[in-house]
Write a structure and sequence with these properties.
- The structure holds three protein chains of three kinds.
- By secondary structure, chain A is an alpha/beta fold.
- Helices cover 33% and strands 19% of the residues of chain A.
- Chain A has a domain at 4-118 and 208-225: Thiolase/Chalcone synthase (Peroxisomal Thiolase, Chain A, domain 1, 3-Layer(aba) Sandwich), CATH 3.40.47.10.
- In chain A, strands 3-2-4-7-1-8-11-10-9 form a nine-stranded mixed β-sheet. Chain A has a two-stranded antiparallel ribbon with strand order 5-6.
- Chain B folds into three domains: 9-111, 2-Layer Sandwich (Nonspecific Lipid-transfer Protein, Chain A); 121-220, SCP2 sterol-binding domain (Nonspecific Lipid-transfer Protein, Chain A), CATH 3.30.1050.10; 253-383, no CATH class.
- In chain B, 20% of the residues lie in helices and 30% in strands.
- Chain B is elongated, with a radius of gyration of 32 Å.
- Chain C is of the alpha/beta class.
- Chain C has 15 helices and eleven strands.
- Chain C has helices at residues 27-42, 58-61, 66-74, 90-103, 123-128, 147-156, 158-178, 193-199, 227-233, 263-275, 280-283, 294-304, 311-317, 334-337, 341-357; strands spanning 8-15, 51-55, 80-83, 109-117, 202-204, 207-208, 217-226, 238-246, 286-288, 371-378, 382-389.
- In chain C, the strands form two sheets. Chain C has a nine-stranded mixed β-sheet. A two-stranded antiparallel ribbon of chain C has the order 5-6.
- In chain C, strand 5 (202-204) and strand 6 (207-208) form a beta hairpin.
- The radius of gyration of chain C is 20 Å and the shape is globular.
- In chain C, 66% of the residues are buried.
- Classes of the chains: A alpha/beta, B alpha+beta, C alpha/beta.
- Chains in contact: A-B, A-C, B-C.
- The A-B interface holds A 18-22, 24-25, 28, 31-32, 35, 41-42, 58, 61, 70-72, 74, 76, 113, 115-119, 122-123, 126, 130-131 and B 240, 242, 244, 246-254, 256, 284-289, 291, 293.
Chain lengths: 380, 385, 397
């Protein structure tokens, strides 16, 4: 299979309340960033003609949310499709545009401004069926709490281990100029932070965040026009689990294992533990870091808790960005993960640069308690 | 009287008073005319004024109302009962409305409880033969008598024998059982509005003869469903009503912020593209054509030239408040003085100018007295004479 | 556009009946009905599907990420799934996406689902929420405007323009009356032209109620496969030749003294140029157009078919857009007949593909249909245009 190059990425610094900018302004910032890095242009001959955006009508409180941002995507009189899921799926779709031969350069950009709405939980409550799920008050937080309990049961994950995940996330976040929550904390701060939704404590949950991310993708032949240092997108996979919680084994990682299996197969990865040396997971809640790591194959079934204690996160360079726990908006959680993987592979991560990374995996999730997962593999 | 879906046109008008909701019409002042053609049709005029209702049976064609509805009797009854889709009847022209259409859409649902067909005791009894379930009547040999008093009452005998059922218009002397009650009680029982045991216990129903036979008789017949009744037909189908809403806090960003502050000063600010010089009104962060950031703001207007005119007769209700703007109103597309020629700006026209407005005319803005930096600061444009 | 990596064929089409009320089923059941029909049509099972695509508008039914709930009926469980939404064009975007995904080699068989249950929300309110909340929202009235009517009356004279728009409308109703799945089937006759022209209630200017599209519930599902798989699984796959999408900025700045090239025209110009189509009216055998109103349908025929002056009106007046004309438009009855918004733009290629297969039903065009054109519309004049072919014999340009 042909290869797709990531020529450049741009991240808007995340913050819990970007009150002074419209989301259009945030997208313009990342557009200009990519233009500066690569000389990207939109002329009809040889310029960008295909754009993939990612945003959500409920979070933006706008029908056809991409209609609000066509101009700041550079998409005026151009092709543009909106991925109405977490944005990492947009990377997968953009990949298909290039591999199909439909186009050879694709600009991808996602935004989400969680601070605009009164409550994230009110948004995600709307994703449940109006008759039952919504009526009993399900949202992505309390559904995650059920999964957290199930996973603690399965892996023996403790309060202390979850706290360790958060403390480490903040340490790395402090080195990432795009992270939101960078204040340093200690184990006790996390373990005694107020209970949000048992067993999830306030500090186990990702902070409310606003942000935008952009990518420039190109075919192998075209990539050199934009960069001397491309990163290759070699694997993509996703998978849907059941809707009703009672139909799922919440601690099984069914969807993630399938998604990872598909992405690895496409990338020719046989053993993730041996062939991948940087991992970015969308850990909206602390328990998810070990659980998703497990689903991606970096430790055995039910061994995520042990993985934390045995310094697995350092060994595999897990979430050197600080991860979701340091604050990215939900609709772009995976895009920020992939952006971090790209700058690490390019060797442009500055203070939090890992050494000797050659292949990375980025993961994201959409839906309650990881109903749907997406995985991409990136290589130097 | 001609009936459609089991209901006469007259029934609908005769029940208006009892269905009227004064609290829904406190600030309403309208007259609605109805010209219903065909058998059972007629002409009615309904006046709703500040919580009061007057229904008049007219001799001829009704005109000169806020809105006049014209339809044939079958369509009118069908739409009222929800048997015929109102939107489709209206779109296809089988219902025509003269005058202000929004009155019907906005006022009627607030002014009246939905019409429910009047069910008569006689229609229930007269349908027993159709509702009879022979498979349940094996070995049954009974005569059930009905003695219904009051309005709509009468006497009947239902004979069940050899798995057949026959209805007689008289009360036979040799009935197995006779049930005596007010006709309305009988209707309520059959519509599930009244519980049988309660009615018997409270003495509303009197049973002479074999009480056991009376109990068993109900299983011999299908449940009565009034013609035209919608809800009864699918009790398992529920439609859940809710209005989800999430409070929002929209940022203006610096450019829209300047725009709103400009309105306070009666000024329009446009963003100017540094490459093509195009003016964007209201200002945007970027020129979509050149893909460059627009930082420079220039003043345009306040007068403008009209390019296109939309006269709106059907205003859609605000999805959250349910309020509907007054119609007709006029939306203008115009080019503000000093703005680029391909950049149109849309706003409303002063209603007084609705008959005079033409493309190419000069218009000027009319501002609100008290301006707070919101879209309400700009009331509309009017012809600049 | 580069060379296609591999060809993609349409191997299954499933549509629910379109109607204003579907209280008898919930959203999941409606999606499932469409999925079942498509699988039956393709004579395959869910096991054969590699990836599911889903699209509709969240704020129309007020369900956030509805594909999560709909997975109960969409068959996405255990599969790759993507959700793409672009407003009115959603259905067409899904078809373009399915084409790209299969052509890329990432998936062999992709199923795309467009759905909307407009009855469960407030459509005009949903559309109004599209506008910028700070400025444009209070000026918006859903998708209603008479600007096209006004401009056409200016260009062709009031009488001729109004008559032509009504002829277009009645023609659409005649097609819809043949289509058993169409939502609104009024049974209009051409002798009602004068009456409807003058008495149908005015919505905005000369845009009258009869001209405007319906609000419908329904789902449309299509299954796509790579050339190799399609030939193996299906006896008459319909091939996707090419597609183009053109979006534009959101502001209403297109009614100034000078007007920009319409997106539809731009899309057609680019698409036909790169495929060597010199005369679209001659080349295509059917055109399924997303026509939200009779005025727009008629006006846009000129843009999409790159016609000049009154050529489109002449073609209509001469009956050339009828089912037995030179280029039949919307044998399905079009959007004025059926409009489940998230699916509407998929109904176009779905009908076009059935016309090519020759099994469209009572509305089947009598002469052989080999080349089909289908369009989608949404947003602030967004356009999608795609070409479908009966045979894999076109020349790369």
């Amino acid at each position: 299979m042909k290869r797709v190059a990531v020529c450049a990425v741009a991240q808007h610094k995340c913050d819990s309340n970007i009150w002074h900018k419209r989301f259009q302004g945030m997208l313009l910032d990342v557009l200009e960033d990519i233009q500066e890095q690569t000389g990207m242009h939109f002329s009809e001959k040889g310029g960008v003609r295909s754009i993939v955006s990612s945003s959500d009508d409920v979070f933006d409180a706008r029908t056809i949310s991409d209609n609000a941002v066509t101009d700041v995507l550079g998409a005026h009189y151009r092709e543009e499709e909106k991925m109405a899921q977490e944005g990492l799926n947009g990377i997968g779709y953009a990949m298909s545009i290039i591999l199909s031969g439909h186009d050879d350069v694709v600009y991808v950009a996602g935004h989400c401004k969680e601070s605009q709405g009164e409550s994230r939980n009110m948004c995600t409550n709307l994703s449940y069926d109006p008759f039952y799920g919504r009526a009993i008050g399900l949202d992505y937080t309390n559904v995650a709490a059920l999964q957290a309990r199930a996973y603690m049961e399965k892996s023996g994950l403790t309060e202390e281990q979850m706290a360790k995940v958060v403390v480490r996330a903040r340490q790395w976040a402090a080195k990432n100029p795009y992270a939101n929550a960078t204040e340093q904390v200690e184990l006790g701060d996390v373990m005694y932070s107020p209970m949000l939704c048992d067993p999830i404590r306030t500090m186990h949950a990702y902070p409310v965040s606003d942000g935008a991310v952009a990518f420039l993708l190109a075919s192998e032949e075209k990539a050199h026009e934009y960069t001397d240092n491309p990163v290759w997108l070699t694997g993509f996979g996703s998978c849907m689990d059941s809707y009703f919680l009672g139909d799922r084994d919440l601690a099984s990682n069914f969807a993630l294992k399938n998604a990872a299996g598909r992405a690895y197969r496409m990338a020719g990865v046989k053993d993730a533990k041996k062939e991948i040396n940087l991992v970015e997971v969308m850990d909206c809640y602390a328990y998810q870091q070990p659980m998703w790591i497990e689903g991606l194959g970096f430790c055995g079934d039910g061994e995520g808790a042990k993985f934390i204690d045995e310094e697995g996160p350092e060994k595999y360079n897990v979430n050197l960005s600080g991860g979701m726990l340091s604050g990215n908006p939900i609709m772009t959680g995976g895009l920020y993960r992939a952006a971090e993987a790209v700058i690490q592979l390019k060797g442009e991560a500055g203070a939090h640069q890992a050494s000797d990374v050659s292949r990375a995996v980025a993961q994201s999730t959409t839906g309650g308690a990881g109903q749907f997962h997406t995985v991409v593999v990136l290589e130097k | 009287m001609a009936q459609y879906f089991g209901t006469a046109v007259e029934d609908i008008f005769n029940t208006m008073e009892e269905r009227f909701l004064p609290e829904g019409t406190v600030d309403v002042d309208v007259t609605i005319g109805y010209n219903i053609s065909g058998e059972g049709g007629g002409h009615w005029k309904v006046t709703i004024k500040e919580g009061t209702l007057k229904t008049e049976d007219m001799d001829g064609e009704v005109t000169d109302c806020t809105a006049v509805l014209n339809a044939n009797a079958e369509t009118f009854v069908g739409v009222t009962l929800g048997k015929i889709d109102a939107g489709e009847a209206f779109s296809s022209g089988s219902i025509k409305v003269d005058g202000d259409l929004t009155v019907l859409i906005a006022v009627l649902p607030k002014a009246f409880r939905p019409f429910k067909p009047v069910v008569k005791a006689s229609s229930i009894v007269e349908s027993v033969e159709e509702r009879f379930r022979p498979e349940k009547a094996e070995g049954v040999d009974i005569k059930i008598g009905y003695d219904l008093s009051g309005d709509g009452g009468g006497q009947w005998t239902v004979v069940v024998k050899d798995q057949t059922c026959a209805l007689k218009d008289v009360l036979d002397d040799d009935c197995t059982v006779v049930m005596r009650m007010e006709a309305q009680v009988f209707v309520d029982l059959n519509q599930g509005k009244l519980d049988g045991a309660t009615a018997f216990t409270s003495g509303q129903v009197k049973i002479d003869g074999d009480i056991g036979a009376a109990g068993k008789s109900s299983s011999l017949f299908e449940k009565y469903v009034a013609e035209g009744a919608v809800e009864e037909q699918g009790e398992e189908l529920i439609s859940l009503k809710c209005v989800p809403s999430i409070n929002q806090r929209y940022a203006t960003g610096p450019l829209m912020g300047t725009w709103f502050n400009g309105l306070k000063e009666k000024k329009f600010y446009a963003a100017k593209c540094p490459e093509c010089g195009r003016t964007l009104v209201p200002p945007r962060e970027i020129c979509a054509q050149c893909r460059v950031r627009c930082n420079e703001l220039v003043e345009v207007g306040p007068d403008a030239m009209v390019t296109l005119i939309d006269v709106v007769y059907y205003a859609s209700p605000d999805p959250l408040t349910g309020k509907i703007r007054e119609t007709p109103y006029t939306a203008l597309f115009m080019v503000l003085d000093g703005a680029s020629r391909d950049e149109s700006f849309a706003h409303d026209l002063n209603p007084r100018d609705i008959d005079r407005i033409k493309p190419g005319m000069k218009v000027r803005p009319v501002w609100s007295e008290k301006r707070t930096g919101s879209y309400k600061d700009l009331l509309y444009f009017e012809i600049a004479d | 556009m580069g060379k296609r990596n591999r060809n993609v064929g349409i191997i299954g089409i499933g549509q629910t009946e379109y109607s204003s009320h579907k209280e008898h089923q919930n959203q999941v059941e409606m999606v499932n009905e469409g999925v079942r029909y498509a699988l039956e049509d393709a004579n395959i099972t869910l096991d054969d599907i590699d990836c599911v695509l889903h699209g509709n508008m969240e704020l129309f039914e007020m369900v956030h990420q509805p594909d999560m709930w709909h997975s109960l009926g969409s068959g996405a469980y255990g599969k790759d799934q993507l959700r793409i939404t672009t407003g009115g064009t959603t259905g067409a975007s899904l078809v373009c996406a399915a084409d790209n995904l299969v052509a890329s080699g990432m998936y062999d068989v992709v199923m795309a689902i467009g759905m909307e249950k407009l009855q469960e929300g407030h459509t005009t309110g949903g559309i109004t929420n599209m506008a910028d909340p700070l400025w444009f929202r209070h000026l918006q009235t859903g998708a209603l405007t008479a600007t096209t009517a006004t401009m056409m009356m200016e260009e062709f004279g009031e009488e001729r323009a109004k008559r032509a728009a009504m002829k277009y409308r009645i023609m659409m109703d005649k097609h819809a009356c043949l289509n058993p799945r169409a939502h609104r089937r009024f049974g209009l006759e051409y002798d009602q032209t004068d009456d409807l022209m003058n008495t149908s209630p005015q919505l905005v200017g000369e845009l009258r109620l009869i001209h405007m599209c319906s609000q419908s519930d329904g789902a449309c599902v299509m299954i796509f496969a790579s050339e190799e798989k399609a030939k193996e699984m299906c006896k008459n796959p319909v091939w996707i030749r090419d597609h183009i999408t053109v979006h534009r900025e959101e502001t209403f700045n297109n009614f100034g003294i000078e007007m920009p090239e319409m997106t539809h025209h731009y899309a057609a110009r680019k698409l036909f140029e790169r495929n060597g189509i010199k005369n679209p009216v001659e080349y295509f055998d059917v055109f399924e157009m997303y026509d939200p109103s009779a005025w727009w349908g008629l006006d846009w025929a000129r843009e999409f078919l790159l016609l000049k002056d009154d050529e489109h009106i002449k073609l209509l007046e001469d009956g050339e857009f009828d089912l037995d004309g030179k280029l039949p438009i919307n044998p399905s009855g079009g959007v004025t007949a059926s409009n489940p918004i998230g699916a509407t733009a998929m109904l176009r290629p779905a009908e076009a593909a059935m016309q090519i297969r020759g099994d469209a039903g009572p509305q089947q065009i009598k002469k052989e249909v080999r080349h089909a054109l289908a369009s989608g519309f949404g947003g602030t004049l967004w356009s999608v245009l795609m070409m479908l072919e009966k045979d894999l014999d076109w020349q790369e340009v």
